[in-house]
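Page 37, continued from 36.
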């Protein structure tokens, strides 16, 4: 009986922990939606990708070592609908997330939100709406503001 209770408790804890990040919450709210696709990349996979990169950046390798996961949700249709819905989820969880950066132009909107624990950034959520496309990029782990600034800078350069 104790074993049964322990297994059930651990299972519930695992479900609770896995549903903590933004991407999991958003996906759970749209679980029957076939327009959304999700890709999860582990730190090990990110390291493997970087091993093939000729210009290895030690700072980037250190950042990746501190990440737990990266999830990317995307849809090629109904971009505005998903973006607005994601913003609603953000606003519902405004006690967890704080704005870091946002920018928009005629065809694109981008919001970067962060979640902190004891002054450490433990989650980054990037919401992107471009024409009919929608993307969420969700990093979990320990991140520095320098990493986020580099990421934001690369997004701005891409769309300048």
């Amino acid at each position: 009986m104790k074993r049964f209770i322990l297994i059930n408790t651990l299972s519930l804890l695992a479900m609770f922990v896995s549903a903590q990040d933004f991407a999991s919450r958003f996906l759970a709210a749209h679980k029957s939606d076939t327009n959304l696709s999700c890709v999860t990349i582990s730190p090990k996979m990110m390291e493997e990708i970087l091993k093939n990169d000729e210009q290895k950046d030690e700072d980037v390798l250190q950042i990746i070592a501190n990440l737990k996961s990266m999830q990317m949700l995307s849809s090629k249709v109904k971009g505005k609908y998903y973006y607005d819905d994601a913003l609603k989820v953000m606003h519902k969880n405004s006690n967890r997330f704080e704005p870091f950066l946002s920018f928009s132009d005629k065809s694109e909107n981008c919001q970067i939100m962060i979640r902190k624990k004891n002054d450490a950034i433990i989650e980054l959520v990037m919401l992107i709406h471009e024409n009919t496309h929608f993307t969420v990029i969700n990093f979990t782990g320990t991140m520095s503001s320098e990493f986020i600034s580099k990421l934001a800078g690369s997004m701005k350069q891409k769309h300048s």
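The chain has one domain: 21-158. Flag for discussion at group meeting. Strands lie at 37-41, 67-75, 97-104, 108-117, 120-130, 133-143.
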